[in-house]
């Protein structure tokens, strides 16, 4: 008997309980964005209804309350990730902005002609393009570690690509297109042995596993609130304090300074140094609520439940003639990417929607991995903690029905 009561948890997510095209919604697109528990929605509503004020500036009651809630959320996230200090938690718009922050602020100060940035073939565009931009600006070079046919990282090749010029290794914790879980602890050990820093793109990591940034030894860890059952427009860059302290700002404006004169401006210490302008206050507070919600669940049990649904769904899909699963690495989580012989993924996605089943189709912002797997697009069913075996039955039934229509 699981210690996770999925039916009870489903009641916490109001969006799930609706009909789409006349059928009960089956939401299988949590890797794109997850639904929000009532606690998040209620916390944000209450903020706007009762407190709404800017942070850090006002002396009035509402501003003090807003600041307390905003900084309280930072501490909630610090505890959730087991960061050593709340000053290591920088609020950003999401994973994309967190990676751009590091590539700009750290990259401009530390990368020189011929320095190497090591990526993998399974990266999301947001962990590729920011590095290309900074490589172009600094003369650094991008290296790419290959992957095996099942979608797992080729660790031998990865290790061989580490060298005396490697300055940064930027790697997904979990691939959004394939579900592969990378051995990030080992990657960090190897990179550190070569004197390189590691940025982990945790956008798909934190939704599926508890992450302890200190145990992991990551230098930077990026995540998006909206994939972690929090609101959109908010994310986190965790960075080791000594690194953040040594980094120049990348955006200038209010709240990131100590003293401004026209001759010289002194910057605030982190995290304020990297939070120029009015931040996404309600978003941060909502994300704080999301991690508090997750803290009420037994995460090991949630993980076991998700794995059960993933395995059950995979077995069902494998029985359907013409279906091929793309990404079969051992230990994968959260995602079933697949192709159906003779049916374009977009047509399939539309047909599944007619059955009330929401999936994502396309290249999943990971065109290189699509090229590597020799496909141009896939249909992706991705799981949240609220999905069930029944959802997988509905997916398989809808898939069979759609395939009949197309044949
Ligand atoms: N990395 C990975 C692995 C992702 O799945 C995503 C979102 N699809 C991102 C980065 C970018 O996240 P965001 O769009 O929230 O910034």
Keywords:
alpha/beta; Aspartate Aminotransferase, domain 1; Aspartate Aminotransferase, domain 2; 4-stranded antiparallel sheet; 17% strand
What does this 3D model show about the protein?
This protein has 407 residues and is an alpha/beta fold. It folds into two domains: 6-30 and 298-406, Aspartate Aminotransferase, domain 1, CATH 3.90.1150.10; 41-295, Aspartate Aminotransferase, domain 2, CATH 3.40.640. It contains 14 helices and 17 strands. The protein has helices at 6-10, 38-51, 61-81, 95-110, 129-138, 155-161, 184-193, 213-216, 241-246, 281-295, 299-318, 345-354, 367-372, 389-406, and strands spanning 19-20, 23-24, 26-27, 89-92, 116-120, 141-145, 166-172, 197-201, 220-224, 235-239, 257-260, 265-267, 323-326, 335-340, 357-358, 360-362, 378-382. Strands 4-10-9-8-7-5-6 form a seven-stranded mixed beta sheet, with helices on both faces. Strand 5 (116-120), helix 5 (129-138) and strand 6 (141-145) form a beta-alpha-beta unit. Helix 3 packs across helix 10 (281-295), helix 4 runs parallel beside helix 5 and helix 11 packs parallel to helix 14. The chain starts with 5 loop residues before the first helix and ends with a helix. The model has no long low-confidence stretch (mean pLDDT 97). Residues 94-96, 124, 126-127, 172, 176, 201, 203-204, 224, 365 line the site of 4'-deoxy-4'-aminopyridoxal-5'-phosphate (PMP).
């Amino acid at each position: 008997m699981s210690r996770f009561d999925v039916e009870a948890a489903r009641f916490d997510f109001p969006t799930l309980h609706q009909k789409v095209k006349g059928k009960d919604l089956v939401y299988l697109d949590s890797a794109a964005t997850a639904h929000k528990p009532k606690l998040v929605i209620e916390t944000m509503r209450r903020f706007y209804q009762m407190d709404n004020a800017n942070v850090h500036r006002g002396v009035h009651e509402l501003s003090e309350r807003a600041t307390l809630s905003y900084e309280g959320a930072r501490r909630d996230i610090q505890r959730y990730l087991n960061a050593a200090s709340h000053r290591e938690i920088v609020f950003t718009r999401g994973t994309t902005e967190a990676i751009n922050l590091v590539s700009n602020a750290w990259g401009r100060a530390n990368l020189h002609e011929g320095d190497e940035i090591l990526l993998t073939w399974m990266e999301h565009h947001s962990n590729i393009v920011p590095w290309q931009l900074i490589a172009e600006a600094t003369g650094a070079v991008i290296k790419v570690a290959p992957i095996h046919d099942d979608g797992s990282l080729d660790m031998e090749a990865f290790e061989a690509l580490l060298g005396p010029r490697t300055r940064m290794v930027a790697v997904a914790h979990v691939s959004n297109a394939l579900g592969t879980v990378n051995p990030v602890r080992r990657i960090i050990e190897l990179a550190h042995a070569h004197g390189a820093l590691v940025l982990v793109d945790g956008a798909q990591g934190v939704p599926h596993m508890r992450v302890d940034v200190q145990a992991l030894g990551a230098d930077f860890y990026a995540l998006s609130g909206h994939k972690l059952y929090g609101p959109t427009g908010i994310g986190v860059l965790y960075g080791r304090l000594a690194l953040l302290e040594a980094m120049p700002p990348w955006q200038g404006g209010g709240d990131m300074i100590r003293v401004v004169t026209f001759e010289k401006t002194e910057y605030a210490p982190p995290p304020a140094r990297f939070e120029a302008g009015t931040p996404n206050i309600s978003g941060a507070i909502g994300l704080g609520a999301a991690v508090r919600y997750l803290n009420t669940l037994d995460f090991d049990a949630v993980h076991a439940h998700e794995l059960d649904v993933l395995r059950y769904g995979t077995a069902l899909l494998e029985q359907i003639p013409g279906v091929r699963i793309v990404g079969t690495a051992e230990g994968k989580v959260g995602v079933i990417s697949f192709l159906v012989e003779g049916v374009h993924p977009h047509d399939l996605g539309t047909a599944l929607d007619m059955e009330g089943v929401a999936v994502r189709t396309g290249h999943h912002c990971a065109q290189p991995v699509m090229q590597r797997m020799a496909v141009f697009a896939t249909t992706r069913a991705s799981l949240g903690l609220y999905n069930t075996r029944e959802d997988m039955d509905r997916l398989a039934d809808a898939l069979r029905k759609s395939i009949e229509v197309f044949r």
